Amino acid sequence: MAEALARVSRVGGMGMVTIRADLDRAGDAIAEAAGLAIPARTRIVTDGRRCLGWMSPDELLLIVPLPDLPEAIAALEQALTGEHALVVDVSDARVMLDVTGAGAGEVIAKLCPADLDAIGADGLRRTRAAQTAVAIWRIADGFRLIGFRSTADYLTLILRNAAIPGSGLEPR
Questions:
Q1: What is residue 112's three-state secondary structure?
Q2: Coil, helix or strand at residue 66
Q3: By CB atoms within 10 Å of each CB, which of 9, 44, 91, 116 scores lowest?
Q4: Is 0.70 surpassed by the pTM of this model?
Q5: Where are the domains of the chain?
Q6: pLDDT digits (tens, 9 = 90+) for 70-102
Q7: What is the DSSP letter of 166?
Q8: In the Cβ-directed half-sphere of 97, how many Cα atoms lie within 13 Å?
Q9: Architecture of 7-11+93-162 per CATH?
């Protein structure tokens, strides 16, 4: 059997927090509490441990190591006191997958209508992978995807199938 185009692996040990707020009003408070700058539209910022991604005009996603999750939520809730805002731990509702290796882009392209070349080093793209909602951004050796945990097994399977050379899946 030929070597896979890329490796598909689940990423564990990370917590995820959805933050909904008026970013013009509360952005500075969120940035201070998260320890990261507010990302520009369709961008993600990281300090190597934590990530803060732009999800929509009033929504950010903070990704932190699980041990830091309670403190991060408390800091955000404190920072947003008095604001019309929402801070929700969505760690159990999401799954993170890494697609890494020389063929990572090819594997993703087989399943997603997104222009991967348009996703810069700090770009974040919300799209679909075989009709499953995902967010994608670049990592050192490929791409990281976040999807719903309810579709985690399916998403993992279709990515692994797309990584098989000659699988019959053609890039879109």
A1: coil
A2: helix
A3: 9
A4: yes
A5: 7-11+93-162, 14-91
A6: 999 999 999 999 999 999 999 999 999 999 999
A7: T
A8: 28
A9: 2-Layer Sandwich (3.30)
